[in-house]
Design a protein that fits this description.
heterodimer; A: 360 residues; 3-stranded antiparallel sheet; 11 helices; 12 strands; B: Pyruvate-ferredoxin Oxidoreductase, domain 3; globular
């Protein structure tokens, strides 16, 4: 029996986590550890955004847990004054799953990178997403291995020249959003490290979502893959590349036109989507974003190729499905309630049905 | 001497001669699809209910259904029962029941001359004989002359008995295993109420099948009673076991109950993260049925996720458990190492099977000892405990939990296939007598200088255990991880002296775990030979020692529950004996540890056939050692 079976209203991602009236600040969430990323690393911006964002949730700091794997970004938990675990390569989702299933009173976050979550930990990522455990996964994607000093990653573009691929990589990269949607993710978002506002908005929606939320964060590695996302940040055509989604709104982007909205739009094209100039299409041809539409979310994820010609940010998908942890706890609680008339009887369990007595 | 009337309703059953036996070994053997495991299991239950001591050895192929009637498809179940306490499932059967030519061919060599052979003749057609390479029918060519052969057309008789039920011929014949069970139950005076009850429950949704199986069972019973083929029946009186309440239990069930009990005794929810693997899966199945005890089972996407989730649950204050077999331990090694350095409680249950690699999934071996001890990178000490009998798996699970929670450490429990699937009467413990285990969660800051800070690696001076502070505890927020930590404060530290100190501290913590002294069974008090074992070899070693003593020779036996740390008195015990002999189902893993640690010239005896040692084999080994004969 699950909340959905019972017809109960669906609940938010933080329901069950104790709240506090105390005023909290970013400083409260800052640990005493010196931050040791390279100068200019995009992780600093994400850390600052998260430290400012967490106090706005109004939950108790001691009920917040960050679990990470291995890689530069996985040092993240050390810098937050919450409970945290820096675990082993690729396995953070497994540890977070056990924690989230057994502790509904915790807000559980996973911090991982493109190598950690999509290479060595790929299996755990897809299974966390399909189970829909109530945990939030922040995937820092810098499209390179940083901690091991610059090998190509599963999101590096084809032809990437690195220490391990001196004449260019040959394998096709993952599209993390497409992958997550294919793994039945109920929440998929994307943000850029330097876009504090956009990142915070996606984090807020992820926190409020009950279930596994995957947030891909484009993050710059100034040492081994410097400027990987610069085409989205600066330059004349940056605005024409970046598509930001707002649920319920027509998808328009690029420099503002006469109506104050973007001069480019996303329109239906057969079973997929394409980009068009707003003034060249009828208004009703422009796709209105619907985060509950699985096919639309997938089609949007396919707009952004490895060359970042059109890169969608915001929330691709946000739908409700019973979470694994809620469903499992419901089974346990139901069994406990059934046993509660006198508590579970260990002696009866050990005895079983067929005992015999030897008398002296 | 009998007056048998032709009219069945009028049949007068003459009482047969009843021969009393101290012990009997029966082996049921047939095709994988013949239901031999179920048949053996039911005979075991009847025997347990009767009050005999017993020990069982299921032996089945890894394939679910190998091609019917072939040699690789043979499945068997051996049961040893007696009017005294016995230690092994028996070396060789006294009675062999074979359902087809393949079962006969595979098993006949184990039947001693004069043994009783009951054969289902319906399967002995030309095709089936040819399939297993019999050129002539062994029932006709005289090759079975040295046995007391009983030919019974079990399928035909079962079909006849079920003629009125309306079942198809095929469905009716499937009940022939119950016919065999009925026949043997008659022969050995087994009570059959529990089997009837069992069949009604098993086929609750198909009452017609339940009644058909009961009919077949009764037909087998009646067949023994009314035909003259069986001149005698046998009686094995109940065994005078210590007073108490008993039940029959398998190792995997006892282990599961131990984990449930550990949750109750610690007051912690139990979280099992597991991936299906033979022969450990039954623990996952069993625990998934006991959610009412606040037990959560998580069938993970792989072995690594199973232990990862268990460790995550432990971090959150649950009793994290993962169950697997050797190949799974290999995959979990990195996470066990993480648990070592995080210093969190975690139970790793390894139900060993034949290796390396996939090896022999359904056969037994104890070759994971060194993997459990050392199979991780870095200095990564882990306590290791091992049960010595199916029922003892309960106590071993509790002991593993006690160590894990008290010392904040992963603990390896090494069961094996023969313990997991084997069964014995188990004296059910009185739960009121089980000692509680205090998780002693940290609740307050602990900085030695009085500052309002939490030091996650400040150790208890007695146990060297660190505090277990679970998320949700205000003021104790802290970060832990796989990187080396500063002694006390727990922050990341790359300081050479600190690493040296932490490596030694982690080692000292495990070395300092309190374990009971090893007890030596040395009735004369002056034996020259000590036989030392661990795990499931307890039964065969004990049986071998008994036989040697019955011959008037002296031998001492000791068995290790704790492989790491070893009992404090072990060195002294080893030094007391002229010869220390260590039989193992591996190529000498414990003996390697003993020789390294105690500089003792211990002798190794090994067998990795996938089957337990036989009492006779060990008797001969001990006698050879006592008499100075060395193979």
């Amino acid at each position: 029996m699950t909340a959905l079976d019972l017809g109960l209203p669906t609940i938010g991602g933080l329901d069950g986590v104790p709240t506090t009236e105390d005023k909290q600040t970013a400083k409260d969430y800052t640990s005493d550890q010196e931050v040791r990323w390279c100068p200019g690393c995009g992780d600093y911006a994400v850390l600052a955004a998260v430290r400012s964002f967490l106090p706005t949730l109004g939950i108790k700091r001691e009920n917040t847990v960050f679990i990470s794997g291995i890689g530069c970004s996985s040092r993240f938990p050390y810098y937050l004054n919450t409970y945290g675990m820096h675990s082993i390569h690729g396995r953070a989702p497994t540890i977070a799953t056990g924690l989230a299933v057994s502790r509904p009173d915790l807000s559980v976050w996973v911090v991982t990178g493109d190598g950690d979550s999509l290479s060595i930990g790929g299996n755990h990522l897809i299974h966390a997403l399909r189970r829909n455990v109530n945990l939030k996964i922040l995937l820092f994607n810098n499209r390179i291995y940083g901690l091991t000093k610059g090998q190509y990653s599963p999101t590096s573009e084809v032809g990437k020249v690195t220490k391990s691929t001196p004449v260019g990589s040959v394998d096709t990269p993952f599209n993390p959003v497409s992958l997550a949607l294919g793994a039945e993710a109920t929440f998929v978002g994307r943000a850029i490290d330097s876009d504090r506002k956009g990142l915070t908005a996606v984090l807020g929606a992820a926190a409020a979502h009950r279930g596994t939320a995957l947030v891909e964060i484009f993050q710059d590695c100034p040492i081994f893959n410097d400027g990987a996302f610069d085409v989205l940040r600066k330059g004349d055509d940056a605005a024409e590349r970046l598509i930001t989604l707002t649920d319920g709104e027509p998808i328009r982007f690029g420099p503002a036109g006469d109506d104050g909205l973007g001069t480019f739009a996303v329109v239906q094209d057969g079973l997929g989507l394409r980009v068009a100039k707003t003034d060249e299409v009828a208004a009703e041809q422009i796709v209105v974003h619907d985060a509950t539409d699985h096919n639309l979310a997938f089609a949007l994820s396919r707009l952004s190729d490895q060359n970042l010609t059109h890169t969608v940010t915001g929330i691709f998908r946000n739908t409700e499905r019973i979470t694994y942890d809620d469903a499992v706890r419901a089974q346990v609680n139901q069994a406990r309630a059934a046993a509660a008339k006198g508590g579970p009887d260990l002696q009866a369990l050990l005895n079983g049905r067929d005992t015999w007595t030897v008398v002296g | 001497m009998t007056a048998t009337h032709n009219d069945a309703a009028e049949t007068v059953v003459e009482p047969r001669d009843v021969i009393e036996r101290d012990r009997v070994v029966i082996r049921f053997a047939g095709d994988s699809g013949d239901g031999m495991q179920l048949t053996g299991d039911r005979f075991t239950s009847e025997t347990a209910a009767f009050g005999n001591d017993l020990s069982t050895l299921p032996n089945f192929p890894a394939e679910i259904r190998a091609p019917a009637g072939t040699l690789p498809g043979v499945s068997s179940f051996q049961l040893h029962f007696a009017n005294y306490d016995i230690l092994t499932p028996g070396d060789r059967p006294d009675v062999l029941v074979t359902m087809n030519p393949a079962a006969l061919k595979v098993n006949i060599a184990d039947l001693p001359p004069g043994g009783v052979l009951i054969v289902n003749t319906d399967e002995f057609g030309k095709r089936n004989l040819a399939k297993v390479g019999y050129e002539t029918n062994p029932l006709e060519d005289g090759s079975l002359e040295q046995y007391a052969v009983h030919e019974v057309a079990m399928a035909t008789l079962t079909r006849g008995a079920l003629a009125e039920t309306g079942l198809s011929k095929k469905d009716a014949e499937r009940a022939k295993n119950m016919f065999a069970l009925g026949l043997l139950s008659w022969m050995y005076h087994r009570p059959h109420e529990s089997t009837e009850r069992f069949l009604r429950e098993k086929f609750a949704r198909r009452p017609d099948l339940a009644e058909a199986n009961i009919l077949a069972f009764k037909a087998g019973h009646a067949y023994g009673e009314t035909t003259e083929a069986f001149a005698v029946t046998y009686e094995v009186k109940p065994a005078p076991l210590p007073t108490g309440t008993y039940r029959q239990i398998t190792g995997n069930t006892a282990l599961s109950y131990g984990l449930v009990a550990a949750g109750q005794l610690t007051g912690l929810p139990v979280f099992l993260g597991s991936y299906p693997i033979t022969p450990a899966s039954d623990i996952l199945h069993e625990l998934s049925r006991h959610k009412g005890f606040d037990v959560t089972t998580f069938q993970a996407e792989d072995e690594i996720a199973g232990i990862g989730a268990a460790l995550g649950a432990s971090f959150g204050g649950a009793l994290g458990v993962t169950t697997t077999s050797g190949p799974g331990v290999a995959l979990k090694s990195e996470t066990i190492g993480l648990a070592v350095t995080l210093e969190l409680p975690l139970l790793v249950i390894d139900v060993q099977r034949g290796g390396p690699s996939t090896g022999l999934p359904t056969k037994t071996e104890q070759a994971d000892l060194l993997q459990a001890m050392f199979g991780r990178n870095g200095e990564s000490p882990v306590p290791v405990v091992a049960p010595h009998s199916p029922g003892d798996c309960f106590d071993a699970a509790l002991e593993a939990a006690r160590i894990a929670v008290t010392y904040r450490t992963p603990v390896m429990l090494l069961s094996d296939g023969s313990l997991a699937n084997g069964s014995e009467p188990w004296k059910v413990p009185d739960v009121a007598t089980l000692a509680s285990i205090d998780p002693a969660f940290a609740t307050a800051t602990n900085a030695p200088d009085g500052a309002d800070e939490f030091w996650p690696y400040l150790r208890d001076p007695g146990t060297l255990a660190r505090p277990w502070a679970v998320p949700g505890t205000k003021g104790l927020e802290h970060r832990i991880g796989g990187l080396e930590k500063a002694d006390g404060r727990g922050a990341i530290s790359y300081d050479p002296a600190n690493h040296d100190r932490m490596v030694r501290l982690r080692g000292a913590k495990i070395d300092g775990i309190t374990v009971p002294d090893i007890e030596v069974d040395d009735p004369s008090g002056d034996a020259d030979l000590l036989v030392l074992g661990w795990g499931s070899t307890y039964g065969p070693i004990g049986a071998g020692c008994r036989r040697v003593r019955a011959l008037g020779q002296k031998v001492a036996q000791a068995h290790l529950r704790h492989l790491n740390p070893m009992p404090a008195n072990l060195g002294d015990v080893l030094a007391r004996y002229r010869t220390v002999l260590v039989p193992e189902m591996n190529l000498g893993q414990l003996v390697l540890l003993l020789r390294a640690r105690y500089l003792v010239d211990a002798k190794s005896y090994t067998n990795v056939s996938g089957l337990p040692f036989k009492a006779e084999e060990l008797q001969d080994l001990f006698l050879d050692n006592l008499n100075g004969v060395h193979a």
